[in-house]
Amino acid sequence: MPCSRLASSIALLALISGCAARPQSALPVALDVPRPPAPRSSESKGAEDAAPGGALLVWGRTGDGPPRTWHLTDEGAVIREEPGIVVATGRGEWRWEVSEVKVETSACEFGPGETREPGEGTAHRAELVLRGTGARQQVIAPSDADGSNVIQHEAEAIGSVGPYLFIEERTYSDACGAHGFVGVGFMVWDADKGAIVDLLAEVSSVPALQGEAEALLDEDEDDPEAARQEENAPELVQIAPAYDARGALRVTAKLARSACYACGDGAWSSYTRSAVVPAKKAPERLAAWASPPSGMQSFLAEHPDLIVGGWSRAGRAE
Protein backbone atom coordinates (compact mmCIF):
# COMPACT_ATOMS: atom_id res chain seq x y z
CA MET A 1 0.00 0.00 0.00
CA PRO A 2 1.57 3.35 -1.00
CA CYS A 3 2.49 5.80 1.71
CA SER A 4 -0.20 8.40 2.30
CA ARG A 5 0.06 12.14 2.84
CA LEU A 6 -1.20 11.54 6.39
CA ALA A 7 1.67 9.19 7.18
CA SER A 8 4.16 11.72 5.71
CA SER A 9 2.68 14.53 7.80
CA ILE A 10 2.87 12.46 10.94
CA ALA A 11 6.48 11.54 10.31
CA LEU A 12 7.40 15.20 9.65
CA LEU A 13 5.67 16.38 12.82
CA ALA A 14 7.47 13.71 14.80
CA LEU A 15 10.85 14.90 13.54
CA ILE A 16 10.00 18.52 14.27
CA SER A 17 9.05 17.62 17.84
CA GLY A 18 12.41 15.98 18.47
CA CYS A 19 10.76 12.62 19.06
CA ALA A 20 12.37 9.68 17.32
CA ALA A 21 8.92 8.46 16.44
CA ARG A 22 8.00 5.30 14.69
CA PRO A 23 5.72 6.03 11.70
CA GLN A 24 2.31 4.49 11.27
CA SER A 25 2.90 0.78 10.84
CA ALA A 26 2.68 -0.75 7.39
CA LEU A 27 0.61 -3.78 6.55
CA PRO A 28 2.41 -7.06 7.22
CA VAL A 29 3.41 -9.25 4.30
CA ALA A 30 1.11 -12.18 3.61
CA LEU A 31 3.00 -15.44 3.67
CA ASP A 32 2.29 -18.39 1.40
CA VAL A 33 -0.03 -20.67 3.34
CA PRO A 34 -0.05 -24.30 2.25
CA ARG A 35 -3.25 -26.26 2.07
CA PRO A 36 -3.67 -28.24 5.29
CA PRO A 37 -2.17 -31.73 5.41
CA ALA A 38 -4.30 -34.84 5.62
CA PRO A 39 -6.21 -35.07 8.92
CA ARG A 40 -4.55 -36.91 11.77
CA SER A 41 -5.86 -40.24 12.93
CA SER A 42 -8.57 -40.20 15.57
CA GLU A 43 -6.08 -41.50 18.12
CA SER A 44 -3.91 -38.38 17.72
CA LYS A 45 -6.73 -35.84 17.90
CA GLY A 46 -7.38 -33.94 21.10
CA ALA A 47 -10.82 -33.55 22.55
CA GLU A 48 -11.10 -30.02 21.15
CA ASP A 49 -10.05 -31.12 17.65
CA ALA A 50 -12.64 -33.86 17.60
CA ALA A 51 -15.47 -31.71 19.00
CA PRO A 52 -18.38 -31.31 16.59
CA GLY A 53 -18.87 -27.96 14.92
CA GLY A 54 -22.05 -26.28 13.76
CA ALA A 55 -23.71 -24.87 10.67
CA LEU A 56 -23.24 -21.31 12.00
CA LEU A 57 -20.44 -19.83 14.11
CA VAL A 58 -21.12 -16.60 16.00
CA TRP A 59 -18.57 -14.88 18.22
CA GLY A 60 -18.89 -11.86 20.44
CA ARG A 61 -18.66 -10.41 23.94
CA THR A 62 -20.97 -9.80 26.84
CA GLY A 63 -20.09 -6.56 28.58
CA ASP A 64 -16.34 -6.26 29.04
CA GLY A 65 -15.82 -10.01 29.01
CA PRO A 66 -13.45 -11.83 26.67
CA PRO A 67 -14.71 -13.06 23.30
CA ARG A 68 -16.51 -16.41 22.99
CA THR A 69 -17.70 -18.42 20.00
CA TRP A 70 -21.02 -20.26 19.75
CA HIS A 71 -21.58 -23.20 17.39
CA LEU A 72 -25.20 -23.26 16.21
CA THR A 73 -27.51 -25.40 14.12
CA ASP A 74 -29.25 -23.84 11.12
CA GLU A 75 -32.22 -23.23 13.42
CA GLY A 76 -30.08 -21.37 15.97
CA ALA A 77 -29.87 -24.05 18.67
CA VAL A 78 -26.57 -24.01 20.56
CA ILE A 79 -24.43 -27.09 19.94
CA ARG A 80 -21.58 -25.83 22.11
CA GLU A 81 -19.62 -22.72 23.00
CA GLU A 82 -15.95 -22.09 23.58
CA PRO A 83 -13.67 -19.23 24.60
CA GLY A 84 -11.95 -17.18 21.92
CA ILE A 85 -12.63 -16.31 18.29
CA VAL A 86 -13.24 -19.04 15.71
CA VAL A 87 -14.28 -18.47 12.09
CA ALA A 88 -15.47 -21.05 9.59
CA THR A 89 -14.37 -21.24 5.95
CA GLY A 90 -14.53 -23.76 3.13
CA ARG A 91 -11.32 -25.26 4.54
CA GLY A 92 -12.59 -25.73 8.08
CA GLU A 93 -12.65 -23.83 11.38
CA TRP A 94 -9.83 -21.43 12.19
CA ARG A 95 -9.03 -20.25 15.72
CA TRP A 96 -7.52 -16.79 16.24
CA GLU A 97 -4.49 -17.08 18.53
CA VAL A 98 -2.25 -14.30 19.84
CA SER A 99 0.97 -14.84 21.79
CA GLU A 100 3.42 -12.35 23.26
CA VAL A 101 7.13 -12.50 22.57
CA LYS A 102 10.04 -10.53 23.98
CA VAL A 103 11.73 -7.99 21.70
CA GLU A 104 15.32 -6.84 22.20
CA THR A 105 15.49 -3.07 22.74
CA SER A 106 18.39 -0.62 22.67
CA ALA A 107 20.06 1.80 25.06
CA CYS A 108 19.76 5.44 24.07
CA GLU A 109 21.00 8.90 24.97
CA PHE A 110 18.35 10.53 27.11
CA GLY A 111 20.16 13.81 27.65
CA PRO A 112 23.67 15.26 27.89
CA GLY A 113 25.75 12.52 29.47
CA GLU A 114 22.67 10.47 30.32
CA THR A 115 22.21 6.98 28.93
CA ARG A 116 19.03 5.01 29.36
CA GLU A 117 19.47 1.26 29.52
CA PRO A 118 17.35 -0.95 27.23
CA GLY A 119 13.75 -0.98 28.38
CA GLU A 120 10.78 -3.30 27.95
CA GLY A 121 10.14 -4.80 24.55
CA THR A 122 7.11 -6.95 23.73
CA ALA A 123 5.28 -7.81 20.53
CA HIS A 124 2.32 -9.94 19.51
CA ARG A 125 2.40 -12.83 17.10
CA ALA A 126 -1.04 -13.49 15.59
CA GLU A 127 -1.97 -16.74 13.86
CA LEU A 128 -4.98 -18.68 12.68
CA VAL A 129 -4.89 -22.38 13.57
CA LEU A 130 -6.97 -24.90 11.63
CA ARG A 131 -8.95 -27.23 13.86
CA GLY A 132 -8.21 -30.92 13.32
CA THR A 133 -4.87 -30.50 11.52
CA GLY A 134 -2.96 -27.77 13.35
CA ALA A 135 -2.16 -26.01 10.04
CA ARG A 136 -1.31 -22.36 10.66
CA GLN A 137 -1.62 -19.04 8.91
CA GLN A 138 0.83 -16.46 10.21
CA VAL A 139 -1.19 -13.26 10.11
CA ILE A 140 1.19 -10.96 12.00
CA ALA A 141 4.83 -11.71 12.69
CA PRO A 142 6.54 -9.84 15.55
CA SER A 143 8.87 -7.12 14.27
CA ASP A 144 12.09 -6.03 15.91
CA ALA A 145 12.37 -2.91 18.07
CA ASP A 146 14.07 -0.93 15.29
CA GLY A 147 16.33 0.90 17.74
CA SER A 148 13.60 1.77 20.23
CA ASN A 149 14.38 1.90 23.93
CA VAL A 150 10.85 0.77 24.80
CA ILE A 151 8.36 -0.88 22.48
CA GLN A 152 4.95 -2.43 23.13
CA HIS A 153 3.10 -3.92 20.17
CA GLU A 154 -0.41 -5.38 20.32
CA ALA A 155 -2.70 -6.97 17.73
CA GLU A 156 -6.46 -7.34 18.12
CA ALA A 157 -9.24 -8.76 15.98
CA ILE A 158 -11.83 -5.98 16.17
CA GLY A 159 -14.46 -7.82 14.12
CA SER A 160 -15.10 -10.29 11.32
CA VAL A 161 -17.43 -10.80 8.37
CA GLY A 162 -17.54 -14.39 7.15
CA PRO A 163 -13.89 -15.38 6.58
CA TYR A 164 -12.63 -11.77 6.74
CA LEU A 165 -10.97 -10.69 9.99
CA PHE A 166 -10.56 -6.97 10.69
CA ILE A 167 -7.34 -6.50 12.62
CA GLU A 168 -5.84 -3.48 14.37
CA GLU A 169 -2.18 -3.21 15.40
CA ARG A 170 -1.14 -0.64 17.97
CA THR A 171 2.52 0.05 18.75
CA TYR A 172 3.95 2.31 21.43
CA SER A 173 7.64 3.11 21.04
CA ASP A 174 10.06 5.42 22.82
CA ALA A 175 13.56 6.17 21.55
CA CYS A 176 14.48 8.82 24.14
CA GLY A 177 12.89 11.64 22.19
CA ALA A 178 10.65 14.30 23.68
CA HIS A 179 8.00 11.63 24.28
CA GLY A 180 6.87 8.24 23.09
CA PHE A 181 4.77 7.65 20.00
CA VAL A 182 1.79 5.45 19.16
CA GLY A 183 1.51 4.07 15.64
CA VAL A 184 -1.58 2.21 14.44
CA GLY A 185 -2.02 -0.11 11.49
CA PHE A 186 -5.10 -1.79 10.05
CA MET A 187 -5.56 -4.81 7.84
CA VAL A 188 -8.21 -7.26 6.69
CA TRP A 189 -7.23 -10.93 6.47
CA ASP A 190 -9.02 -13.51 4.34
CA ALA A 191 -8.92 -16.71 6.41
CA ASP A 192 -10.13 -18.80 3.47
CA LYS A 193 -7.29 -17.78 1.16
CA GLY A 194 -4.68 -16.97 3.82
CA ALA A 195 -3.95 -13.49 2.47
CA ILE A 196 -4.40 -9.77 3.08
CA VAL A 197 -7.31 -8.03 1.35
CA ASP A 198 -7.06 -4.29 0.61
CA LEU A 199 -10.63 -3.62 1.66
CA LEU A 200 -10.06 0.12 2.09
CA ALA A 201 -9.58 0.36 -1.68
CA GLU A 202 -13.06 -1.13 -2.15
CA VAL A 203 -14.89 1.48 -0.06
CA SER A 204 -17.17 3.67 -2.15
CA SER A 205 -18.11 7.35 -1.71
CA VAL A 206 -14.89 8.20 0.13
CA PRO A 207 -15.15 11.96 -0.60
CA ALA A 208 -18.57 12.01 1.09
CA LEU A 209 -17.12 10.20 4.11
CA GLN A 210 -14.27 12.72 4.23
CA GLY A 211 -16.77 15.57 4.23
CA GLU A 212 -18.72 14.10 7.14
CA ALA A 213 -15.57 13.40 9.13
CA GLU A 214 -14.22 16.88 8.45
CA ALA A 215 -17.41 18.48 9.76
CA LEU A 216 -17.19 16.45 12.97
CA LEU A 217 -13.52 17.26 13.46
CA ASP A 218 -14.05 20.97 12.83
CA GLU A 219 -16.54 21.17 15.70
CA ASP A 220 -13.69 20.93 18.20
CA GLU A 221 -11.19 23.10 16.34
CA ASP A 222 -10.31 26.62 17.52
CA ASP A 223 -9.46 27.53 13.91
CA PRO A 224 -11.43 25.22 11.57
CA GLU A 225 -10.22 27.04 8.44
CA ALA A 226 -6.58 26.38 9.27
CA ALA A 227 -7.28 22.76 10.09
CA ARG A 228 -9.26 22.30 6.89
CA GLN A 229 -6.31 22.72 4.57
CA GLU A 230 -6.34 20.59 1.43
CA GLU A 231 -3.19 18.71 2.42
CA ASN A 232 -4.75 17.91 5.79
CA ALA A 233 -8.00 16.35 4.59
CA PRO A 234 -9.10 13.35 6.70
CA GLU A 235 -7.88 10.06 5.26
CA LEU A 236 -9.72 6.77 5.44
CA VAL A 237 -7.63 4.62 7.78
CA GLN A 238 -9.99 1.87 8.96
CA ILE A 239 -13.39 0.28 8.44
CA ALA A 240 -15.05 -2.05 10.91
CA PRO A 241 -18.15 -4.24 11.01
CA ALA A 242 -20.92 -3.56 13.51
CA TYR A 243 -23.95 -5.79 13.96
CA ASP A 244 -27.31 -4.66 15.25
CA ALA A 245 -29.49 -6.58 17.73
CA ARG A 246 -30.80 -8.83 14.92
CA GLY A 247 -27.35 -9.46 13.46
CA ALA A 248 -27.70 -7.20 10.42
CA LEU A 249 -24.35 -5.89 9.20
CA ARG A 250 -23.41 -2.24 9.32
CA VAL A 251 -19.98 -0.83 8.46
CA THR A 252 -18.32 2.16 10.06
CA ALA A 253 -15.42 4.16 8.66
CA LYS A 254 -12.68 5.88 10.65
CA LEU A 255 -10.95 8.87 9.08
CA ALA A 256 -7.97 10.69 10.57
CA ARG A 257 -6.10 13.90 9.87
CA SER A 258 -2.81 15.15 11.24
CA ALA A 259 -2.62 17.25 14.40
CA CYS A 260 0.02 18.42 16.84
CA TYR A 261 0.98 15.91 19.53
CA ALA A 262 -0.91 17.77 22.26
CA CYS A 263 -3.91 18.19 19.93
CA GLY A 264 -4.26 14.47 19.14
CA ASP A 265 -7.29 12.64 20.52
CA GLY A 266 -5.64 9.24 21.09
CA ALA A 267 -8.21 7.42 18.96
CA TRP A 268 -5.68 6.64 16.21
CA SER A 269 -1.95 7.28 15.89
CA SER A 270 -0.19 10.06 17.75
CA TYR A 271 -0.32 13.37 15.89
CA THR A 272 -3.84 12.70 14.63
CA ARG A 273 -7.46 13.40 15.39
CA SER A 274 -10.08 11.09 13.97
CA ALA A 275 -13.81 10.68 13.48
CA VAL A 276 -16.02 7.63 12.90
CA VAL A 277 -18.90 7.87 10.43
CA PRO A 278 -21.26 5.26 8.97
CA ALA A 279 -20.16 3.92 5.59
CA LYS A 280 -22.61 4.64 2.76
CA LYS A 281 -22.36 1.07 1.54
CA ALA A 282 -20.45 -2.02 2.60
CA PRO A 283 -17.79 -3.25 0.15
CA GLU A 284 -19.35 -5.61 -2.39
CA ARG A 285 -17.43 -8.68 -1.20
CA LEU A 286 -19.21 -8.40 2.18
CA ALA A 287 -22.71 -8.44 0.66
CA ALA A 288 -23.25 -12.17 1.31
CA TRP A 289 -23.18 -11.46 5.07
CA ALA A 290 -25.27 -8.30 5.09
CA SER A 291 -28.43 -10.09 6.25
CA PRO A 292 -28.25 -12.61 9.10
CA PRO A 293 -29.71 -16.11 8.67
CA SER A 294 -32.88 -16.88 10.59
CA GLY A 295 -31.02 -19.22 12.96
CA MET A 296 -28.68 -16.42 14.00
CA GLN A 297 -31.63 -14.11 14.60
CA SER A 298 -33.26 -16.72 16.83
CA PHE A 299 -30.04 -17.15 18.79
CA LEU A 300 -29.59 -13.39 19.29
CA ALA A 301 -33.19 -13.01 20.45
CA GLU A 302 -32.27 -15.31 23.34
CA HIS A 303 -28.96 -13.50 24.01
CA PRO A 304 -29.88 -9.78 23.97
CA ASP A 305 -26.74 -8.78 25.91
CA LEU A 306 -24.34 -10.28 23.36
CA ILE A 307 -22.31 -7.81 21.30
CA VAL A 308 -21.65 -9.68 18.07
CA GLY A 309 -18.12 -9.52 16.71
CA GLY A 310 -18.79 -11.62 13.62
CA TRP A 311 -20.37 -14.73 12.15
CA SER A 312 -19.51 -17.31 9.53
CA ARG A 313 -21.03 -20.41 7.97
CA ALA A 314 -19.33 -23.81 7.99
CA GLY A 315 -18.29 -25.19 4.62
CA ARG A 316 -18.64 -21.88 2.82
CA ALA A 317 -15.84 -20.61 0.62
CA GLU A 318 -16.04 -17.23 -1.11
Beta-strand content: 35-45%
Mean pLDDT: 84
How many discrete structural domains?
1
**Radius of gyration over C-alpha positions, nearest whole angstrom:** 21 Å
Helix proportion: 10-25%
Low-confidence spans: 1-52
Shape: globular
Q: What is the succession of H and E elements?
A: HHEEEEEEEEEEEEEHHEEEHE
Termini separation (Å)? 24 Å
How many beta strands in the DSSP annotation? 17
Q: Helical element count?
A: 5
In terms of structural class, how would the helical and strand content be classed?
A: mainly beta
> Main sheet, how many strands, which sense, barrel?
8 strands, mixed
Would you give an account of this structure?
This protein has one domain (5-28, 53-313). The protein contains five helices and 17 strands. Strand 4 (86-89) and strand 5 (92-102) form a beta hairpin. Strands 4, 5, 8, 9, 10, 11, 12 and 13 form an eight-stranded mixed sheet that branches. It has a four-stranded antiparallel sheet with strand order 3-2-1-17, covered by helices on one side. A three-stranded antiparallel sheet has the order 14-15-16. The protein is globular, with a radius of gyration of 21 Å. It is mainly beta and 318 residues long.
Key attributes of the depicted protein:
13% helix, disordered N terminus, 318 residues, single chain, eight-stranded mixed beta sheet, 5 helices, four-stranded antiparallel beta sheet
